[in-house]
Amino acid sequence: MRKLIHIFDKLPSWSISVVVLIVILILTLDSNPVKIDLPNIVGIDKMVHGIMFGGLAMSICLDIQRRNWSVLIGVGSMIVAIVISSVVGIIVEMLQYWMANGRTYEAYDIVADVVGVLIFTFIIRILLKKYGVE
Fold it and tell me: What pTM, to 2 d.p., does this model score?
């Protein structure tokens, strides 16, 4: 697992977060980005939101951690990742409302985004503490 976390070390700073953000924007702002129907499971849309924005928070934490592997990412940096990812989720919902491209604004999507961000931020901290810091 330690090698898996460190495979991104040679990439430029913030590259992981930028790629994740671009994927999220495509998936959330395009009217039908993947041309598949999601299974008819109650709440799957909210789970997907939590995973996407949680992934963004994880990537921001990982990009911050990659600057210095000798010290575990601090709480302040985690809060920055949480705030940035949550604000991006709110902005995406507002854009969906204003763009009128078949996507709709839902307050519960924002809640799902923030819950995913919180869960995934603490998961990455645990993983970094166990496998990342040297």
Answer: 0.88
